[in-house]
Amino acid sequence: MGGGGQLTEPGSGRAGGVYTWEEVQSHSSRNDQWLVIDRKVYNITQWAKRHPGGFRVISHYAGEDATEAFAAFHPNPTFVQKFLKPLQIGELAASEPSQDRNKNAAIIQDFHTLRAQAESEGLFRARPLFFCLHLCHIVLLEALAWLMIWHWGTNWMLTLLCSVMLATAQSQAGWLQHDFGHLSVFKKSRWNHLLHKFAIGHLKGASANWWNHRHFQHHAKPNVFRKDPDVNMLSIFVVGATQPVEYGIKKIKHMPYHRQHQYFFLVGPPLLIPVFFHIQIMHTMISRHDWVDLVWSMSYYLRYFCCYIPLYGLLGSVALISFVRFLESHWFVWVTQMNHLPMDIDHEKHQDWLTMQLRATCNIEQSFFNDWFSGHLNFQIEHHLFPTMPRHNYHLVAPHVRALCEKHGIPYQMKTMWQGLTDIVRSLKNSGDLWLDAYLHK
Fold this sequence. Notes:
mainly alpha; Flavocytochrome B2, Chain A, domain 1; 2 domains; 5-stranded mixed beta sheet; two-stranded parallel ribbon; 17 helices; 7 strands; globular
């Protein structure tokens, strides 16, 4: 069916074209982007710039079948159809398979069936009381931390305890904003978006739009170089098994990578949130003129300094919040990296949703503490497969996911918390050793 593109004006909204996968795949450049959803072909070249989740996340699927990603990210596909309809330029030819490249049709169908089963069992319905109690315990921690200093004074021991309480509140607020950001709490997206701005802005001093545009890319293409920003280590680290060898062969040595498992303790956990994220968030809000997020962010700092300047003074308050960010950053880095960094990190392989997510994620054993400590991201596999599912239901769908993985021979990794944490360091050392060998001998 070559030449099907001549049957319609691309982007005109007239869905008269019939296309092959080869034709669709040829439209994957920055200024020419098509994708397929449920066998319908869409020209998203102009729409990508207006995409609420950011232009990068949708552009990562240019020239590909985005059916599974579309289902994963949009809890109300009927609502989204009104935006898609004007972009449709045709459909796949009848002779073309529904999946592109070498994706496994049986896995795709079985996962579709599993998702339908989870929906029918109500696993995408949130329990409001769970999230209300979670918010209450964050507010309680912050209130108790301030009252303790106000009543008993600012000695070193109380200040240290206050810092731990505030860092705990910040970390737990991070998990809560994550829930709202993934549209997993309310049925109506607008309420999720509003509460997301409150949670990440007023409770944490960060930006909802910055988080959305960064985090959705990670979910769309986890551990894929040039598509997942979480594996863009700015040449400070080399990760996985491919990148270290590439750097070594090219004699790239920005850092002593064979020592990265050691300097990780000095650069990664201590600096990610208080330095890198803080600078990136402020730069993003100001450069993109995102004044709404900036106001939400400033409301956090206004509240914080109004509470603590009378107790510690200006410099003391700055020192306190810096130490809180330092503690929170350790918590965040260890929890988020134990699920991904030891897994496969490579260039784009164009795999089906289930295979791609299982390749890049692993789970940590369930316990009350592990659930609380990680914001239920110990169920990282289930979270990545069903990002809009409320986290209190991950343990219910997990047995079905594991059974599906066993059926198709896909590894489903479960670790202890200690193993997950030590695997971070082990994987960095392995990658560093690969780099050194390639640097010296290839």
